[in-house]
Amino acid sequence: MMAKRNILLFLAAGLMTGIAPAHADHVTTVVGLVNLTNYQAALLVMTDSPPNASFSMDTHKWVTDGEVLDDMQIENNHTHVEIAQIDFTNGVVRAKENGVSVLYVPPQTNSPLAFLGTGFRLDNAAFDDALDFYAGTTGRTVLVHPDVNRGPLSISADVHNKLEVAGSIEKKMQQQGVVMMADGEKFEWVVPARLAASLSPVTEPPVKGSSSTNVIDALPTGSINFINVPLPQALEVYQALTASKWVQDKPLTVPVAITFHNQTPLTKAEVLHVFRVLLAWHGLAIVNLDDQSFKLVPMATGK
């Protein structure tokens, strides 16, 4: 997902939380199924856990029949996976790992995943996994307000197409006090319902970016993956994109961490828009001091 020739991808990757263990056990479970008229997929969670250790690392992946992928988390012992069949009658996925046949099953024997006919099921799936599917359906990158509860989701919906799947996700969000708000043509906001009336685009809309494939002009899907990344580290990407330096004369009073990953390709201008929106949700605004430096200020004072 990350191109090694891309310096920004290296930078973003370095800011992700978690360190892959050198040796680990590999277990995969099925936590989601999509069986539509013209699209079928399963949501896998690949867990790599070192023996006799208290931490593990998960890889979350939507897969389709015939797909080939690699679990790269285990250093010097990568797992090559071939998806042979998604069986919707019992909620299992038949696959091969390094040429050996395996069976991926739901984490619980009474899982509601298995179903006949068309439908969409999530069983205690990660919040971001549902939003990733939503983003793929709508073609928008999702920005999540820091006050949103990112707890796991369980959804069971009899749907027939991706648009209806997106609707079932929106309905589940609404039931949990969360609403979706369009931000231009490229972004979707996920915000607490209680704040929706007070929120509106806080900066100028993203301008149309260059069609160039240069890293500074266009970042592919998955280029940025921040998981509770401290603000100084996250701003390294902003500084690289703008060729400017963060100069903070007064320390910020409250620590800020950024969680964001781009589910669609983004231009440089669109990435900068993301930073402005996310910082605004933390009560901060970017002020350019000159062409080579900027600082952050509380939005209430504007100074």
State the main characteristics:
3 domains, Ribosomal Protein S8, Chain: A, domain 1, 303 residues, alpha+beta, 6 helices, Phage tail protein beta-alpha-beta fold
Polypeptide structure, described:
- It is a single chain.
- By secondary structure, the chain is of the alpha+beta class.
- Helix 2 crosses helix 3.
- It has three domains: 105 residues, no CATH class; 72 residues, Ribosomal Protein S8, Chain: A, domain 1 (2-Layer Sandwich); 81 residues, Phage tail protein beta-alpha-beta fold.
- The N terminus is likely disordered.
- The chain is built from six helices and 19 strands.
- The longest helix is centred in the middle third of the chain and has 14 residues.
- A five-stranded antiparallel sheet has the order 3-2-1-8-10, with helices on one face.
Give the helices and strands as they follow along the chain: HEEEEEEEEHEEHEEHEEHEEEHEE
**Strand order, sheet with most strands:** 3-2-1-8-10
Report the mean per-residue pLDDT as an integer.
82
Q: What radius of gyration results from the CA coordinates?
A: 21 Å
Distance between the termini: 40 Å
Number of helices: 6
Shape: globular
Structural class: alpha+beta
The count of DSSP E runs of length 2 or more, i.e. the number of strands, is 19
Helix percent band: 10-25%
Stretches with pLDDT under 50, minimum 5 residues: 1-23, 203-215
